């Protein structure tokens, strides 16, 4: 068998090169996304920036836990929250009495805007916890003084306007310093007032006579439910400006990895199956010469193992070159922190290599199993003619995947825009697998439909060749199907869902004017109150987005939420199916969409963004909507003290003169925008983000499938040397042969395009029908330009990858070419 394998490798080197290329690039794609995704976790040692001089740092909890089961089956799942809980006000005094404590520093961090620039305000006492150099002036000695971090053009004695959560105030610059941590420093009293009493962390300084862990143990003995941190763990109590970007990167790369896995498995399995199917004559001859089915399977699996190992190693090595540029692009596009890069991590490489090798063996085994079942007496006939191209397995699994795609498409709109978008790829993958499995049934119908204009001898031969070799046509059309199908389905469904969500958001707003903050501090409550007191203003309602966590039975699931002020039903259209939105006030109520499954009057357990557990009574159940899908509406009063103190993100104003509203909002650090301008700005940013996200998700996968198209066509054309020689010997000129090959290649491309178009059209039509329950007259949005470019590129690759190897093959004389062994 080893000798036979070596002879086969020499005789059919093009097939082995094709499978090697497909697997190598597939493993590279998996490893690249895996390395980049793994690099978002951890990131190596993180030394403290805010608290290097503190021996121990005490911080509030930053996680929620859900326990399920009992006894030995008891399992606790934890999830890190958006913010940390505030520390008790009496805790600093209690910690100061502990033995070994020589210093207690109360740290507070407040988002502010200093003359239009976002910054973090902190108490001056915390500045001593980290290295700094005073460039000019000195510490703040009055509550209206501030120390700025350079570089700045301000000098001591200058006045600066600071917008905080309690409004705008003018401060006098008392000093300027330089430090690794940019911040503005106020007196401890002014910082406490600005933070509303919230304590973010407490830094403890010991005597230095004992290890920090000994002091930490004493702190733990006197506190419960708090984080007591030493060493590099102190960094977890610090603000992490990269956390949101890393979370977005991880989410995006999770989707990218899922798509990469799908296309890699699809292409690699198909390529190996095609390569084995090309050798049916060999297996037929082996069977007639006495080889057992087990020997045939061992031969194929041994070859697949060798190619799989070599290609997996090469693919992992290649990923070391592709992962860093991909990570750099993510950082440059705003999807990752500026310094984000892909690091060498062993387990993603091992996982990618393992998946590649497993898929190669499975693809080869399935094809070899069929070849090994051929009876010796039928071997030659089976090897030369396509018979029974649809096996029972293809029928069963093809129909199952088709039904699964239809069911998922039917329920997608009910899941809302967020979850629906996440499932678009899954639904497209199910439909494409179904189309690939059922392709042998559909191909003859498609070819007869699209090939009717072909005339002449070469046209007839091209049509007959594609119809006769259905397996070859299906195998070569599969990469085209997945390339165009994924692109068209995802692009059309994404744009359609986003447009429907934007329409829903536009129809919801009934306010006449919107006030938005100029910076990160938000619009302060005093400004909101002043807006509500303007002549003619019927309502001024502040809102701020957040997130909450709900026990789904085994895990604390994250849901979007929004803090809203009283009178929200006067500025937003909120159709209710039970209860009244007027009852949404206080600190123990909530309004939810019907898709949450909660009943009016029910008391629910919810964790806020800082991990605080609250019990809320459902006072209103809202009709399902795309823009507020599974969003909890929380009373504005509940948000006070939970998370960093910030103002409103948007204030919806109903009535009043636009000039008066603009004057009051401007004085409070905000600006006035119309409803159309507000939505247009959000839509423009959303479209930019969506476009870049789609490039990240689809880019490498489509590049890989494009290469797979060329690879498969080269394999198919290289295997037809004797066919080309036969045509030449019967009198066909090289131009006629190339014309026939080109026409057949275009037929294959059209088959893949039509199948992909059917999948995309079915998804789009089903999605549009489902959206009718949520949006009046939903609009189907198809981005024809990018889809058309992808189709044209696929057809061009198909044509070139067929003609070039055929032209090279015909450089050999027809008589010699006819003697090439199958």
Automatic annotation (TrEMBL):
Domain of life: Bacteria
Domain ABC3 transporter permease C-terminal: 257-374, 696-813
Pfam family, one: FtsX
Membrane topology term: Multi-pass membrane protein
Cell location: Cell membrane
Keyword Cell membrane appears in the UniProt entry: yes
Chaperone is among the record's keywords: no
Transmembrane segments: 257-278, 299-324, 344-368, 395-416, 428-452, 473-493, 692-716, 737-764, 784-808
Family: Belongs to the ABC-4 integral membrane protein family.
PANTHER family referenced in this protein's UniProt entry, alphabetically: ABC TRANSPORTER PERMEASE YTRF (PTHR30572:SF4), MEMBRANE COMPONENT OF TRANSPORTER-RELATED (PTHR30572)
Protein's recorded name: FtsX-like permease family protein
Organism, scientific name: Micromonospora sonneratiae
């Amino acid at each position: 068998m080893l000798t036979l394998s070596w002879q086969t490798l020499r005789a059919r080197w093009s097939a082995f090169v094709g499978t090697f290329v497909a697997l190598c690039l597939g493993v590279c794609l998996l490893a690249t996304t895996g390395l980049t995704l793994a690099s978002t976790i951890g990131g190596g040692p993180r030394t403290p920036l805010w608290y290097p001089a503190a021996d121990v740092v005490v911080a509030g909890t930053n996680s929620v836990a859900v326990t399920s089961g009992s006894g030995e089956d008891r399992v606790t799942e934890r999830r890190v929250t958006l913010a940390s809980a505030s520390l008790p006000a009496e805790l600093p005094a209690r910690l100061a009495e502990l033995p070994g404590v020589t210093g207690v520093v109360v740290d507070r961090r407040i988002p502010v805007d200093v003359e239009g620039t976002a910054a973090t305000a902190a108490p001056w006492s915390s500045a001593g916890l980290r290295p700094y150099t005073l460039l000019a002036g000195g510490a703040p000695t009055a509550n209206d003084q501030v120390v700025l971090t350079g570089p700045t053009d301000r000098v001591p004695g200058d006045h600066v306007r600071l917008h905080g959560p309690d409004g705008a105030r003018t401060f006098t610059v008392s000093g300027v310093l330089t430090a690794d941590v940019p911040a503005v420093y106020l007196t401890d009293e002014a910082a406490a007032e600005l933070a509303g009493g919230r304590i973010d962390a407490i830094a403890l300084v010991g005597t230095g006579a004992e290890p920090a862990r000994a002091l930490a143990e004493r702190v733990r003995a006197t506190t419960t439910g708090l984080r007591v941190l030493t060493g590099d763990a102190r960094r977890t109590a610090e603000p992490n400006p990269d956390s949101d970007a890393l979370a977005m990167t991880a989410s995006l790369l999770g989707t990218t990895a899922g798509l990469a896995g799908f296309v890699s498995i699809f292409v690699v399995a198909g390529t190996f199956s095609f390569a084995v199917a090309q050798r049916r004559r060999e297996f037929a001859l082996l069977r007639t010469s006495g080889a057992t089915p087990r020997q045939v399977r061992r031969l194929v699996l041994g070859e697949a193992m060798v190619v799989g190992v070599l290609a997996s190693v090469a693919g992992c090595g290649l990923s070391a070159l592709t992962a860093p540029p991909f990570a750099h692009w993510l950082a440059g596009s705003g999807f990752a922190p500026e310094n984000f890069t892909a690091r060498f991590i062993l387990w993603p490489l091992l996982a990618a290599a393992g998946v590649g090798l497993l898929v190669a063996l499975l693809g080869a085994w399935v094809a070899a199993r069929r070849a090994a079942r051929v009876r010796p007496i039928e071997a030659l006939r089976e090897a030369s003619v396509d018979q029974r191209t649809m096996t029972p397995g293809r029928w069963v699994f093809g129909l199952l995947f088709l039904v699964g795609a239809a069911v998922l498409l039917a329920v997608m709109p009910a899941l809302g825009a967020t979850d629906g978008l996440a499932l678009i790829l899954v639904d497209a993958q199910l439909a494409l697998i179904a189309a690939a499995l059922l392709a042998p049934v559909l191909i003859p119908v498609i070819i007869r439909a699209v090939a009717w204009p072909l005339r002449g001898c070469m046209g007839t031969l091209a049509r007959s060749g594609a119809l006769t070799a259905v397996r070859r046509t299906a195998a070569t059309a599969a990469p085209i199907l997945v390339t165009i199908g994924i692109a068209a389905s995802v692009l059309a469904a994404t744009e359609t869902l986003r447009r429907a969500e934007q329409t829903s958001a536009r129809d919801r707003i009934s306010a006449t004017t919107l006030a938005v903050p100029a910076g990160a501090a938000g619009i302060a409550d005093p400004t909101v109150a002043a807006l509500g007191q303007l002549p003619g203003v019927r309502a001024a309602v502040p809102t701020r987005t957040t997130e909450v966590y709900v026990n789904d039975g085994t895990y604390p699931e994250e849901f979007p939420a929004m803090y809203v002020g009283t009178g929200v039903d006067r500025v937003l259209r909120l159709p209710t199916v039970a209860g009244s939105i007027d009852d949404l006030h206080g600190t123990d109520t909530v309004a939810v969409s019907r898709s949450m499954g909660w009943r009016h009057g029910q008391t629910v357990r919810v964790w806020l963004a800082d991990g605080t557990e609250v019990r809320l009574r459902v006072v209103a159940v809202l009709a399902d909507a795309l823009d507020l899908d599974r969003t909890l509406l929380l009373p504005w009063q509940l948000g006070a003290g939970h998370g960093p103190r910030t103002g409103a993100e948007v204030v919806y104003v109903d009535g009043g003169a636009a000039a008066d509203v603009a004057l009051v909002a401007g004085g409070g650090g905000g600006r006035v925008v119309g409803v159309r301008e507000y939505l247009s700005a959000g839509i423009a940013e959303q479209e930019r983000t969506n476009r870049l996200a789609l490039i990240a998700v689809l880019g490498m996968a489509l590049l890989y499938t494009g290469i797979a198209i060329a690879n498969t066509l080269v394999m198919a054309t290289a295997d037809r040397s004797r066919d080309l020689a036969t045509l030449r010997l019967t009198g066909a000129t090289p131009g006629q042969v190339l014309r026939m090959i080109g026409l057949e290649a275009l037929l294959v491309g059209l088959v893949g395009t039509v199948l992909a178009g059917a999948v995309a059209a079915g998804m789009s039509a089903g999605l549009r029908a489902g959206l009718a329950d949520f949006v009046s007259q939903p609009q189907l949005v198809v981005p024809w330009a990018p889809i058309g470019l992808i189709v044209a590129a696929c057809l061009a690759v198909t044509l070139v990858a067929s003609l070039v190897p055929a032209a090279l093959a015909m450089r050999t004389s027809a008589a010699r070419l006819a003697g090439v062994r199958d």
